Amino acid sequence: MNDLQEAIKLITDPAAKDADARRSAQNTLYTVLDNGLRLLHPFMPFVTEELWQRLPRRPTDQTPSIMLARFPEKQAERDFPDAEREFDLAFNGVRAIRSMATSYNLNSKLQVFFLARTPELAATLRASQDALSVLIKGCASFTVVEKEDEMPEGCVGELVGQDLSAYLLLKVRYNPLSTPFPH
Prior knowledge:
Elements: H1 2-12, H2 19-40, H3 45-54, H4 81-103, E1 110-116, H5 119-127, H6 129-135, E2 139-145, E3 155-161, E4 164-169
């Protein structure tokens, strides 16, 4: 959950560039919290009532108590299976990069590459680049490519799914003239 909190900070920060995206994210977070409390209420009535009373009410909601609030129901217009699949795939790519970085004992200046095999996934990754970079601790550069031959030499990779591979650049060019030889 901490990873998602870090990623959402980029959107909800008052200094964020896109005010509409910020407002949309805030409304989504409010809806999730409100519905989560309603779902928990039968199991934790006193705590959820207290928390729910502290939530600011939307102008259209005059419900005096969580006990009288409607229980959440699935709403088809809030179901985005393609977006969910792409997010899960991207998040699994982040996990793969983290795993590779840990395996090679790397924790900073990571050069990350994602090979997206569909234009839609490539667009999603590029649109989410800032959030995904935050989730990859120590990420210095984040590149999305659509063809295998666009990948630089010296990368180690992992197949994340049919449409996505994650790569981490390991090869470092060493110039013996720029670094003195240790004695």
